[in-house]
Predict the structure.
Amino acid sequence: MLFDKMSLFADGLTVPTTASKDTYSKVLDLRRNGELGIDGALKIYGQVVGTPNSTGSVTTVVQTSADGASWTDLASQTQDGNLLIGMFLPFGLKRFVRLKFAVGSTALGSAVKVKAGLVDQFDQGALPPLQSFPPLADIAADGDALQTPLKLASASGSIAKGSSGTVAIAAGAVTGVEVPSDKYTVTVASGVATIALASNAATGTVYFVDGLGNKVAYAVTATS
């Protein structure tokens, strides 16, 4: 496994110790790659230099954008050890891609530095935990769910700021998510979408994308 400097999101980027603090990587422009369909063909691999304390954590979020200004979360993974992230490049990529490093509610023991980028394979041996969006296990369990129109159990819900809520996936499979702002974090696993709001999030609409390219709206009312 080799890192290419042109495919690095971060090379020694400092992640602050401050709790609930976000740090963003360099933006990669996929148009320079001839707009090839590289979803899933490459992997994202990263390591932490320095060790978070036993209760601290860093969540890495893969974000994409068509214009470099409005960003959508595609996948995330939380680590509290020396390995930061190991996942397949998720589906639903647009022209620009970046990583967001979010410190959890418990601050890190000391500042850590991150190196992360695109690779064509992981080294053999102790492989990192892999995650795609949706998780590979869900795809296997769903069978032809990617070819089934997406349906949510409900079209709206209320979520308190600074907390999270869930909505069940009644049919189909989620392959991408569009959020109204970076104050929203969405994860999907085992047929349930979890929507987490920052303490200063506003009311908005989350759009879920299925394997057929359809968008299904879920209206979120952010309550105090």
About this structure: Residues 33-37, 124-143 have pLDDT under 50 and may be disordered.
